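User: Design a sequence. Structure:
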């Protein structure tokens, strides 16, 4: 497996949604003759953010990527976004590509979309992989989101610049932070800053979409207990964005879920410990059972 090789999608396209008034951009790696893994973007990601990860998967699986509203090449109107609709847009993309079932992998914000896929469309899933999410109302997480929104909405540009430095301190574990601290981390931060400096409404709308997600949990705490899809939850032992004790509540909610600790990793498990993460995920997807 050459994980350093460059990749390019075999097909790309746009799927019309919302009665044809909006567009979802997607990319497909493969020929359509294997099971499909869907990599679900984090909040500030886009399809090409996954290109370094595709080589871990594309020798055994086809891979599907897509951008939510406010990301990449999908529509970016300044209007309310909804996580359950992001899940529904994936189903529309799948239908257009004649894909019956997929293996979703959702890390961080992508895990919320993965959870909605399980709640609303589990008949379209082989397995479900989650990491760095929560399915309960947690005050500390709400405080984190409130702070993020304050930085996004602050009129003073330096405030957003400061936030981008705080964000990386929050999400990385010690080993990765130490490895890239300095010029490499600054280059990553600058890339994020330039992408959203004049499009902060995208971050605002994506973050605000979590409000109805958690309001639905408040209304129906049992909303996810009906997900019978085999599920694994990979938790970074140094995750400070959504710590272990919050994620540990998920196996108490999902009846067919196994939690696995990712050592020496913060919030970005798939990136910080890729060999362990993707080897574990592939073993799980091949077995289609949590007892792999």
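Assistant: Done.
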């Amino acid at each position: 497996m050459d994980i350093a090789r460059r990749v390019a999608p075999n097909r790309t396209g746009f799927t019309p949604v919302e009665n044809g008034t909006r567009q979802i951009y997607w990319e497909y790696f493969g020929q359509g003759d294997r099971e499909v893994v869907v990599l679900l973007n984090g909040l500030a990601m886009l399809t090409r953010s996954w290109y370094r990860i595709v080589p871990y998967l594309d020798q055994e699986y086809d891979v599907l990527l897509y951008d939510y509203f406010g990301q990449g090449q999908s529509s970016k109107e300044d209007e309310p976004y909804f996580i359950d609709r992001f899940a529904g847009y994936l189903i529309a993309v799948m239908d257009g590509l004649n894909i019956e079932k997929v293996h979703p992998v959702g890390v961080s914000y992508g895990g919320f979309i993965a959870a909605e896929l399980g709640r609303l469309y589990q008949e379209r899933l082989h397995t479900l992989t989650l990491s760095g999410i929560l399915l309960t109302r947690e005050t500390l997480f709400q405080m984190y989101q409130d702070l993020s929104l304050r930085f996004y909405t602050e009129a003073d540009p330096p405030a957003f610049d400061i936030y981008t430095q705080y964000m990386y301190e929050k999400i990385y574990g010690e080993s990765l932070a130490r490895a890239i601290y300095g010029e490499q981390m600054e280059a990553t931060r600058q890339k994020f800053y330039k992408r959203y400096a004049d499009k902060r409404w995208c971050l605002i709308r994506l973050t605000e979409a979590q409000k109805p997600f958690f309001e639905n949990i408040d209304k129906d705490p049992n909303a996810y207990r009906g997900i019978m899809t085999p599920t694994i939850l990979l938790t970074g032992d140094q995750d400070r964005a959504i710590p272990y004790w919050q994620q540990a509540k998920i196996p108490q909610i999902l009846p067919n879920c196994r939690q696995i600790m990712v050592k020496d990793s913060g919030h970005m498990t798939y990136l910080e410990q890729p060999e362990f993460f993707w080897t574990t995920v592939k073993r799980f997807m091949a077995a289609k059972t949590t007892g792999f």
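The longest strand covers residues 22-29. The CA atoms of residues 26 and 66 lie 4 Å apart.
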